[in-house]
Give the backbone structure.
Amino acid sequence: MRIAMIGTGYVGLVSGTCFSEFGVRTICVDKNAEKIERLTQGRIPIYEPGLEQLVAKNVRAGRLSFTTDLETAVDGADAVFIAVGTPSRRGDGHADLSFVFAAAEEVALALTKPTVLVTKSTVPVGTGRRVREIVAKARPELEIHVASNPEFLREGSAINDFMRPDRVVIGADSDKAVAVLRRLYRPLYLIETPIVTTTRETAELIKYAANSFLATKITFINEVADFCEQVGANVHDVARAIGLDGRIGRKFLHAGPGFGGSCFPKDTQAFVHSGREFGAPQRIVESVVKVNDERKERMAERIVAACDGSVDGKTIAVLGLTFKPNTDDMRDAASMAIIPTLQTEGATIRAYDPVGMTEAATLLPGVEFGADAYAVLDGADCVAILTEWNEFRALDLDRVAAALKRRVIVDLRNIYRPVEMAAAGFDYYSIGRPAMRSGEQGKATKK
Ligand code: UDX
């Protein structure tokens, strides 16, 4: 089989590469000539574990290639996937669909035989129908089957998520489209991946409902964490105990500074807006968006409080800048809300992130970056852990203690145990667990 993938952003590049690994001849298309040039040389514009090797392997095997020439790429393809960006329109939370519609029209005009056109970008309900209208207008004489095939990839584990998904969703109103997509995903039959075939509208809604539900779960446990702090309870134990109920499930109950990234903030907002537009307000998700935004704003206050109420003239060592580990993505990262607030309040910020510093350097002016975690600690008044990278989980605590001016750690990801940190001589503050001061023996203290 042969496919074209329009858009070499995160979703397009990962999906295109994984399809080629499935044995499908795949041409990835992008308008950005410089990006295509770099991809052709094997240089990957995003940080995603395993992607570079997989691209190289499939390029070598002749199954994967990159081009700016959309016309040639879609010519003769069994399916064309649209995986272009759908940014939030400034201010109003609507997904901007102009790239999707432009790509659909361009593809339709270039097609030379009946083809399945698949939206992979996350798009509001009804977009597939509009794509169908656009392609029917552009090429009334040609049979173009429009389908929706949402992705559920997580940054940092996207290849595994594609190769071993919990399910594949196919939204289409023609048997031909379903048959082509089923053939493309055939390698997954072996591992008995459920394939949900449904209408386009339902498939579009599934994607938003899935992300909004997960964002709701996180926000729920974050508010429970606030409650725990007020009464000296432990949110880890709460999450574990409720999660052991199979109806609730343990995943996505890790309390933290609020969700970020390229999907949850954008998709929850778009879900809220389209819900209102269609007369079905999503009031729970509306609260989730509001609570999460406020939470991120409030996180800096915790660091200020740990520094005896003022960070003016103090140095804060920040560990982790990206919105989560194993990515260089800074979009809606907690660091983006926290660091500028601390700077405004007079703090000097020294930061280290294993892969996010290049990206962060342009987004966070005035931050001094270090070569590793220890390099930012010297003489600092407080350490703030903002991302749970593995390399922060087993720091040499004696070395940390010796380097700091004040032994204060604010751990917004709960990667350490409070009792151990107090025993190691730190005042340790985390999320939804009793704060522990240096030397305390596990006595629960209220923050
Ligand atoms: C998410 C979805 O998981 C994925 O299915 C979808 O296709 C795209 O959006 P991603 O944004 O890569 O993936 O990251 P994810 O691992 O889901 O984390 C999102 C945010 O939630 C991060 O800021 C993370 O720190 C936060 N999070 C996640 C928590 O705070 N607690 C949790 O228990 C889980």
